[in-house]
Amino acid sequence: MLSQALKSLLRPDKRVVVLTGAGISTESGVPTFRGEDGLWKKFKPEELATFDAFISNPQLVWEWYEYRRKLISEVKPNPAHHSLVKMEDFFEDFHLITQNVDGLHQKAGSKKVIELHGNIKRNKCIKCGREFEELEFSSKEIPPKCTCGGMLRPDVVWFGEMLPAQAINEAFKVSSLCDIFFSIGTSAIVYPAAHLPVVAKQGGAYLVEINIERTELSNLADEVFLGKAGEILPEIAKVIREA
Ligand code: BJW
Ligand code: ZN
After folding, report:
1. Fewest Cβ atoms closer than 10 Å to its Cβ: which of 36, 151, 213, 241?
2. Per residue in 198-227, is it b (16+ CB within 10 Å) or e — as a string?
3. Which residue from 144, 174, 133 is spatially nearest to 19, judged by alpha carbons?
4. Which residues, other chains included, contact 71 with Cβ-Cβ below 8 Å and sequence gap of 6+?
5. pTM value surpassing 0.85
6. Taking 70 as the threshold, does the pLDDT of residue 137 lie above it?
7. Residue 104 zone, left/alpha/beta (φ > 0; ψ -120 to 50; rest)
8. Which ligand 1 atom sits closest to the C-alpha of 33?
9. What is the atom index within ligand 1 of the atom nearest the CA of 213?
10. Helical packing angle, 79-90 and 229-242, nearest 10°
11. Average pLDDT score over residue span 108-116
12. Ligand 1 shell residues, CB under 6 Å
């Protein structure tokens, strides 16, 4: 199933970067954002995941996140997440970058994860920026308020907002320097994350895509696996084990 070219690159001394998107968590039961059974079929992500949307309807946006938090707290990592833990152990220079806010990579045991779009478990005050862990506040207000009076919001990155500087800078750096770049379960349409595989390719990396359907990125990729991440990644992990 794997090409000879890819097999010969799967050596511990190769520099590997993985970018994951919502598609890696669907097999755990977390819906994606776009597509047929997308999470936001009723709302376009660009309409709901913005600061303006939060300010005009804080209750709706807060409850939407509460619904997703509950869903995420009840699901488990799947074989795709577990295979990436094995890859982290195998490659000496390995970087896992995720657009996901669900924390499932960490739950699977990945030690170092670059989170580009924040984490749904955390909240922060819109006024003073203070961070709050999910269970830290007992306020009955929706959304709850900070001690300074500001509203709390989920600590995720909405459209029009900057990504955490350290995370995106590191992501671009390691992508530009890697030998193999895996783009897994992402529609590759949201920037700047969508630019990472392009930068990797420009830097000479072998670009591998794993997705159940072709994306914007497919034409640029050296190898496209059309299938479920939870089935393809264990195959790759198996090849590594046997290497
Ligand atoms: C499987 C599978 C299985 C299913 N196995 N695969 C015009 C042109 C270009 C850029 C812009 C523009 N206008 C605005 C922008 C910038 C904007 C942007 O990119 N917009 C595009 C939509 C055009 N970006 C931003 O605003 C970013 N910030 C920024 O650029 O700052 C600078 C700036 C400042 C001020 C003004 C302008 C710019 C921020 C982006 C933040 C994205 N946030 C979200 C929400 C996070 C919080 C939350 O979770 O609620 O992040 S949106 C949503 O999309 C989420 C995701 O991380 C992100 C990416 O989605 P992803 O992961 O790819 O999911 P899907 O659903 O799209 O795809 C799933 C894939 O899986 C599919 O392909 C399936 O086929 C596949 N799949 N099952 C393998 N089993
Ligand atoms: Zn505050």
Report:
1. 36
2. bbbbeeebbbbbbbbeebebeebbbebbee
3. 174
4. 29, 30
5. yes
6. no
7. alpha
8. 66
9. 75
10. 30
11. 98
12. 21-23, 26-27, 32-35, 38, 45-46, 49, 99, 101, 117, 156-162, 185-187, 189-192, 210-213, 215, 228-229
Instruction: Write the pLDDT tens digit of every residue in 198-242.
Output: 999 999 999 999 999 999 999 999 999 999 999 999 999 999 988
Residues 34-63: tens digit of each pLDDT:
876 666 667 777 777 999 999 999 998 998
| All residues at 6 or more sequence positions from 83 whose CB lies less than 8 Å from its CB, including other chains | 233, 234, 236, 237
**Average pLDDT in the 164-171 region?**
98
CA–CA separation, 22 and 34 (whole Å): 9
DSSP letter, residue 100: -
